Amino acid sequence: MSTMIAIPGRRRVFQIFNRTFSLPSNRLKRSFCILASAIMDKCFYFLGIILIFFATGIASFLVYSFFYVLLPMINRAHAEDYLSYFWPLLHILYVVFLLTNVIFNYLSCIMTNHNGPLYKRIVRELANATNFDYPETLQDINECKRDFEDLIVIRLQRRRARAEEQMHQAQENQSQKEQIPLISLDETT
Fold first, then answer.
1. What is the pLDDT of residues 4-43, one digit of tens each?
2. pTM for the predicted model, two decimal places
3. What DSSP line would sit under the chain, residue for residue?
């Protein structure tokens, strides 16, 4: 059984199976943010793999349906024409062109290396264009991460306060509705 006790000040105390743990409040929030971002990174990594297989399956099905369903229909439709080989060949060339483009672009997206001088130069140019102070040293990177985590915590606190305020407002509205006397519409009175 676990319970959490909030101690006024900056510490949180956890009791798990008769053992007591104490953590500073800011450290707890930062630890939660780090854990949540690590879990989301892993989820997105596996989701990316699943989506790659899904997109490959869709592309394979479309290629199959073209060559085994549409192409025979096109051949039958143009069997009597003077240039009976021209239209199916034109369709095949167009589909192969599109398929090559899709495969090339998809593989380029998957296998792009996000490292190196060209990538770093592009990231710096984007940072300059958006007026973002790009971190240069390891200390700057850690400070940027801490600032971002603090921003997330502040947003969560605002969201929680807003939700509590809405809940309090709804409770007040409910209590006001309960206090309104019912008026009888009886004409006999």
1. 444 445 566 666 667 776 666 666 677 777 888 888 888 8
2. 0.43
3. -EEEEEETTTEEEEEETTEEEEEEHHHHHHHHHHHHHHHHHHHHHHHHHHHHHHHHHHHHHHHHHIIIIIHHHHHHHTTTSTTTTHHHHHHHHHHHHHHHHHHHHHHHHHT----SHHHHHHHHHHHHHTT-----SHHHHHHHHHHHHHHHHHHHHHHHHHHHHHHHHHHHHHHHHHHSPP----TT-
